[in-house]
Structure formats: structure tokens, C-alpha cells
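G., before I forget:
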Amino acid sequence: MDRNRKILISILAMLVLTAVIAIVHVSLTIQEEKSFSLSVNVPQFGPGVGIARVEGPIGFSVDKSPFSMARGSEDLINRLDDLEKDSNIKAVVLRINSPGGTVAATQEIYQKIWKLRKKNIVVVASMGEVAASGGYYIASACNHIIANQGTLTGSIGVIAASPNLKGLLDRFGIKMNVIKSGKFKDSMAFHREMRDDERELIQQLIDISYEKFIKDIALGRNMNESDIRPVADGRVMTGETAMKYKLIDGIGTFEDAVDRARQLAELPASSPVYDEMKTPLEQLLFSVNGMFRGNGLIQNGLSMDDYYRLEYRLLP
Amino acid sequence: MIIAKIRSLLWADFFLYSLVDPRLLYRQIGKNDPRPFLLSFTVPAISTISGILALSLLGKQTSFFFTKITYGWILLFIWESFKIVILAALMDMACQFQGSRGNIREMVSLLNFSLFPQAFILPTSMIFSIINFAPVFMFVLFSLVLFVWSAWIAVIGISEMHSIQAGRTVLIFIFPYLFISVVFFFMGLLSLISLVSYITT
């Protein structure tokens, strides 16, 4: 028995020895680590740059869901309003990633930006992937516009579109009963051909909105209308081309836009940035929301709400 | 007194029998000389430190190792002891359902000593780590093998404790794992239903 006990003691001693060797081995091979620091969101304070974002199609109404951060033009205006009231905000960077949107919603944002400018708050537009049509309209109100070389911008113009399903409906023998108070009440209806007088009426609306677009760009960019009109034919262009036509002020990234905002507002380079989205989850939800909004066949083509919608928008 | 008992090496019998003959292990526990209850908790302490060291050898070595080997070890030891007490209580309950006499104190000691083979995960892992031959695979493989060995010790020990067949003892051994799994499954399911209901309403 004593012999067995001694063997057992040897086994235990071997285990202890192994543990000591393992501890020494691990201790000797510990790799040099980068200095570890806890990341804590410390509240920022002092004069700085506020960030506001325009993501996806611009419009008043948005579909809200528990899994998205729905953003309509009113939400953006509320954000700009908050920045305007905040005494720490000396400059605003408006991050635009939008193909445009409805005329009225775009104009409201445009006016709001002007209000900020009149209060001596510098507004710099930073164009992301797309800042076309209404997206550019908004940007034109800013003091300074910065775009990436590959940003799709321009598309200056107004569009109204509705599907003509007359042939399809005739084929299936479907007829619409329409009771209306005036001959223009169902202009752009999908169940019949558009009449000439209706086309003329819609064209007038388009022309008025277009003229307003040109005037507002000229005002915002401090340019002559005659300089804008040659490129205001709905053409899409890259940031580089837009620079050539003086539709933007510089090529650069979002960070460049923040730096430019600091310079224009005469803020130090280390001044804080007040972003509305702080966590990666919020950023993900925001981008998902922009991705899925307003691109469906039903919303673009068949929804009854869209018949009288004039848009400053780049349509694919 | 204590030094004399340590020198007598009687305590080594528990460890020895847990490796060579679980029936003798239970008989030694039943003799209660030396008292096995507190001594048995040295086994979870040894097996947890072995597990931590073995895992540390496999991964990237950082200064977090010192935290693992101190506070982490204490935490794991407490968790392991808590787990043993719960498992022993449930196994003892299952034994009583089968008409045996309850004896949770001896059951805790037996389950603690049954963990002793798991201390060997460190030398086995170290060998394969040094020769760099599939160390992670070998760690997983030997963990499973040593778990089966531990389970076998517990099953044979319980069989000796209550004089019941090994087949029925296997059921007694499995009962706590099944019971806890079913309870946690339904808790998870009900939590999920409640969460989805909260989000959608």
C-alpha cells in the first residue's frame, strides 16, 4: 500500500510540476500588448461641429418599424433645429446620401439650412455615394460642398411619373369607375392615356418647380442662372465633373468636410464633433432603413399616393 | 494532529482509489477516516487550475493570463463546487426515488473525487502543445475522454454506495443533466416567447 501511495504522491508531484512549467512557459511567452484602455463615452462639451444626416429618399412620410431608425424630412429638420438651438454648435456638416425626393420636403430642408446660415452657423455638405437631384438641391444651400470623386451628383431637374396600365387593364377586361369634380382631378391616372391638356398642366408644374430649383441653386452657390442651365438638363455626373462645372467646392471625404467646417467656423482642429449616431448599432439601423425605403415597385409605380408627386429625384 | 495525518498519507488513498478502483474509493469515503468531505474539494480546485492552464497553453498568451490564474481560478472553483453540490443533490434525489437511503454528504465527496482524472488534461495538452500536433483537437478529445472516465468513477461509486446495478446508476447519473437541460430549455423558450411578444406589442 505504501508503494502505491508513493506512486500517487509522485503523480501529484508530476501534476504540480507540470502546472509550474505551464505557468512559467506562459509567463515567458506573453506577447507585448498594445496599451489597453477602456473606451468610455465621455460627454463632449464646448464649441464644435454638429452632424446631421440625409439618408435615402427625401419625403415627409416614412414607414416606421421597430427595427429601423425611420427618418423623414421633419426628423432631419428637427435635428437641424436642435443643432441651431445648441449654443455649442458653430458649424454643421450635413452628410448627404440621397437620390433626392419630393419637392416640398426638399424645399423645407433647403430653407432650414438657409436659416442656419443666417444665424452664422457654417453648414458644409458632405456627399456620400449619391447626392443627386433633391440631394444636390439641399447641398446647394450649404456654405461649402465637398464630394468624393465617385459621388453621383447633378441630375438637376424635376420628374413626375405614373404608369400607364390601360393596355393591361383592357386585356383583363378591368374598367375603372371614376367620379370627379373637374377634368384634371384624375390627371396621371394609370387606367387611361393622358390627355394633351393634362400633359400641358403637369408640364407647367414641372417647369415651375424646375425654375425654382435653378434659382435656389444660383442663390445657394452664388452663381448666375445662365451658368447652371447648361448642366441642369437632368444629367448625372461624378464629383470630379461637378467640380469642373463649379457645382461643388472640393473633392474630399467626410473627415475633410468636418475639417473644412472647423476652418470656416474658426474652430480649433480638436473641437468636438456632435454626431447624432453614436453606436455602431444605430449606424447599422440607419443604413438599413435608407436601403429599404422608397425603392419598391409598388411605391414607385402603382401606389395611388404617387400620382401627384413631383420629385427632385434621380430615378434609375 | 493535522501534520500527523498528512504524514500518514492516508488521504492519498482517496486519490489513488479514484484512479484505480471507484468501489474502493466509496468504501474509503464510507469509513470516514480521514474525513473526506473537505479534502474532496481539493479535486475541483486541482482540475479547474489544470483546465485553465491547458486552455492558456493553446491560445495567445497575454497578461490576462495572470487574472485568469488568480481571480478566474477562484471563480471557476466556486462555480465547479456549486455545480457539484447541485448535481449531487439531484442524484441523491433520484436515488431516493429508487428507494435508496439519501446520503448527500458522501455523494458530494464521491463526485468531487470523480473529477480527479480531469487534472490530467494539463500534461496531455502540454505534450501535444509542445510537439505541436493538433493541440486543440487533442484538448477536445482528451477532455471528452477524461469526462467519460470521471463519469465512470461516479457511476461505479454510486452503484457501490446504494448497492444497485450499474445500468440503473447510469440513469441516476444522467438524471440531473436531463432535468437541468429540460428546465433550461423551457426557460429559454418561455423567455423567447415573452421577448418576441414584448417587441411585437
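Chain A is about 45% helix and 15% strand. Residues 297 and 303 of chain A are 9 Å apart (CA to CA).

More on Monday.
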